Amino acid sequence: MLRQLEELQAAVRTRSPQILAAVSGGTLEEGLLELPYWGSPIRCNLSSGEVLGGDNQPLSTFDQSMVLFYLSTNDGQPPAGRWVSFREFPDGVFYNQAFQGYSGRLLAERFGSSPEAMNTAAAKLGGTRLPALSPAAWRFLPFPRLPLAAVLWPGDEELPGQAQILFDAAADGKMVIDGLALLGGQLSRRLIKTASATAPTDGTRQT
Description:
It is a single chain. This protein has helices at about 1-15, 15-25, 60-75, 90-100, 105-110, 115-125, 175-200, and strands at about 25-30, 30-35, 40-45, 50, 85, 130, 135-145, 145-155, 160-170. By secondary structure, the protein is α+β, with helices and mostly antiparallel strands. It has two domains: about 1-75, no CATH class; about 85-200, no CATH class. The radius of gyration is 18 Å and the shape is globular.
């Protein structure tokens, strides 16, 4: 991933700072592009391509790569305002099974019988409810113009719960398909991690 990071940094350096700010929804400040990432402020040094967190330290290689994917391929178009599944993107159908395995399937296994635990975790992560999709459906904004949705359909005595990560229909203009898959998997992990951190410690289970 380190080599890929260097390639992404080089790609960002070829784009105009003004264009980067316009397409990403960020702001320019003395050679730094500032924008939120999962709700936290970050800064990209446009001379080096290095991405720094609020503590002025470099983000992990993975997180830097996600930010640079967003900056290097973003077409600047506004969100379409319509949710689609991963398989609806060009080439998405070929990778959909694997993507579902480390995103929606994990959410269903963790929250299928405890939708309120997912609702609690999603609220802590700053999500916005999407009641038209499901009682346990939430919108998240990892980047200013790239919304994602985590949707859970709880199970019952006859059917297991199901879940899916959905994307805005214009998301493939903001990030390559591999990057979208990584972003969706990251959302699932964040929800599960947050739920684990807030789970009861007395041996009871949230329902």
